[in-house]
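Most newcomers find our protein records easier to grasp once they have seen one. A learned vocabulary of local backbone shapes supplies the integers on the structure line. An example says more than a description, so a record of this kind follows:
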Amino acid sequence: MSATRSRQRRAARAVDFARLLPAIIWAVVILVPLVFLVFISLRTSLAYGVAPLAFPESFDISNYLAAWNQGAIPIAFVNTLIITAASVVGVVVLASLAAYGIVRWRGRGGGGFYVYFVLGLIVPFQLGLPLLFKIFAGAGLTDSLPGVIIVQVGAGLPLAVFLYTGFLRSVPLELEEAARIDGAGDVRTFVSIVFPLLRPVTATVVILTAISVWNDLIVSLFFLSTPGNQTLPLATIGFRSLISNNQPVIFACAVITVLPIIVLFIVLQRFFISGLTQGALRG
């Protein structure tokens, strides 16, 4: 009996390991380049020339100081942070309100608006950038952070509305009816009752929007021209041409660029999968 149970446990462990193996392989594929990225950023230029992929001799942050103090990295970091934060807030507020209206619409109009937003997932927003540039130029919104924020919010709405709509369909209507019986209006019901229940899908929307905006290059190339308005992707390109002979400093610049997004994902990752799966499956 004991031997049978032991074999069953080993078989169960083997099955669990087989299920986890693809995830382990994927994690290794993702983490190994990141580890070498950090290792190279901590090495001297001379040591990197001798053995590019060797373990760093010492954990020296001088490359990070050089990356931060040269070029337009500090200004670009602040600009990117402002654009990303404002875009995330705009997408979360507008998408959650739009999805709430679509799900709770008492007529047929809600389905039409939903299809309109879903079409935004099919048609790349980059196709409309030349026309948007002309419109924004007439409105004086080119080469300005507000103009880029408006474009990023519009680009992020289709996916966010899709996820919020799917998640809201799982929220019991009885909770809202009880709030209305107590005298709460639609706005108060949404803010006090509904939106707090959307934390998992909101975390998903925050992560996806932040990654998209933080790493975006095309919109910045279209709408930003002066050095004082550059974002990190633009500044990184300029930084690469400025010190092309010092690879460890360039890698340090890359670490500075990706670190905030990695930290954000670590903080919100426990909500990410549940929000993504529930929003997508019910959408």
In short: The two ends are 49 Å apart (CA to CA). The chain has two domains: 2-41, 71-282. Residues 71-282 form a domain with the MetI-like fold fold (CATH 1.10.3720.10). The chain is about 80% helix and 0% strand.
